[in-house]
Amino acid sequence: MLSVVENERLTGVGPGTPAGDMFRRYWLPICAAEKLDENPVVGVRVLGESLVLFQDRSGVMGLLDERCPHRQTSLCLGIPEVNGLRCCYHGWLFDETGACLEMPLEPAGSTFRDKVLIKAYPVQRMGGLIWAYLGPAPAPMLPRWDIYVRPGALRQMIGHRIPTNWLQVVENQADPGHISYGHGRFFQYALEREGKLSSDPRTGYNASLASALALQAQGRHAEFRAVPNGLGYTVERKLSNQGDDDAIRRSSPRKGSSSSFGPCPAATTASRRCSRLPSMCACTARRRGPTRSRMALISRLSP
């Protein structure tokens, strides 16, 4: 079992942490583009940092430190102008690079604005999402994977705030064994309480539990392990007394597969740790493979 210190080191994603430094080397989805279209100023929490995402009246997007350096007023209350975001308190205007363009209440001829620069990160729009890069310059190219840029594609995006760290979510995603009870028997119980339980064996919750019970009746068990696929990891399922060649892989290793998983960080977080959106990519998995027993991502179910 990990110690408290080891757990903090592994799961912390704030600036200066090992995982936080790694995740900052990749483009991260931070907001649905539709949300920014509805409101041109949106507060976001990314890898322990409070930021404000905006789109000015010229269509230029920016991601800035949430607080104006003057009086620490939240720029989430800022006013989008033609060339940047204006603080609602004293009117300081910042562009997408974090440069201060105007200090309207300063004396004429003042050059103090030239000394003010706030934290800013590059952002791009792709596949219905807004992506940000929080790492050191130069920013890498945002991968134009087909699932995000294919013309005429139908995309569905679902986001959740989960009160946990990034590693716990990755571990759960790498554990298909929980489906029979977490998504089977528990669903049956919840629907039973609501009077909506169906006896149809084709429903997912009935089928998954029936499959698990059938294996138990045969005295067999399923083993799951993580297999590198070039972009991240694929979950492989093998039944006892079954050869490796007969194992079933849960996801395809082709490029752009959204089924692959890896320690891809979350878009938003309510604390210094990362709460994770559904897997957007598995790119970070190939940079640092599994470490320690907890990162082996192997789940075994025995009768």
Essential attributes:
single chain; 303 residues; alpha+beta; Rieske Iron-sulfur Protein; 4-stranded antiparallel beta sheet; 7 helices; 20% helix; 21% strand
What is the H-and-E element order? HHEHEEEEEEEEEEHHHHEEEE
The parts where pLDDT drops under 50 for at least 5 residues are: 250-303
Please tell me how large the radius of gyration is. 23 Å
The number of distinct structural domains comes to: 2
Number of helices: 7
Mean pLDDT: 80
Number of strands: 15
Described by the principal axes of the CA atoms, the overall outline is: elongated
Provide the structure class. alpha+beta
Strand content: 15-25%
For the largest beta-sheet, the strand count, sense and barrel status come to: 4 strands, antiparallel
Main β-sheet, spatial strand arrangement? 2-3-4-9
Helix content: 10-25%
Question: How would you concisely characterize the structure shown here?
Answer:
This protein has 303 residues and is α+β, with helices and mostly antiparallel strands. It is built from seven helices and 15 strands.
Please specify the SSE layout and strand pairing.
Layout: H1 4-11, H2 18-23, E1 27-32, H3 33-38, E2 41-46, E3 49-55, E4 61-65, E5 79-81, E6 84-86, E7 93-94, E8 100-102, E9 120-121, E10 123-126, E11 129-133, H4 146-149, H5 166-173, H6 179-193, H7 204-217, E12 222-228, E13 233-239, E14 248-249, E15 299-300
Structure description:
By secondary structure, the protein is of the alpha+beta class. The chain has two domains: 27-139, Rieske Iron-sulfur Protein; 166-195 and 203-300, no CATH class. 20% of the residues lie in helices and 21% in strands. A four-stranded antiparallel β-sheet has the order 2-3-4-9, with no helix packed on it. A four-stranded antiparallel β-sheet has the order 5-6-7-8, with no helix packed on it. Strand 12 and strand 13 form a beta hairpin. Helix 6 (179-193) crosses helix 7. It starts with a helix and ends with a strand. The model is unreliable at 250-303 (pLDDT under 50).
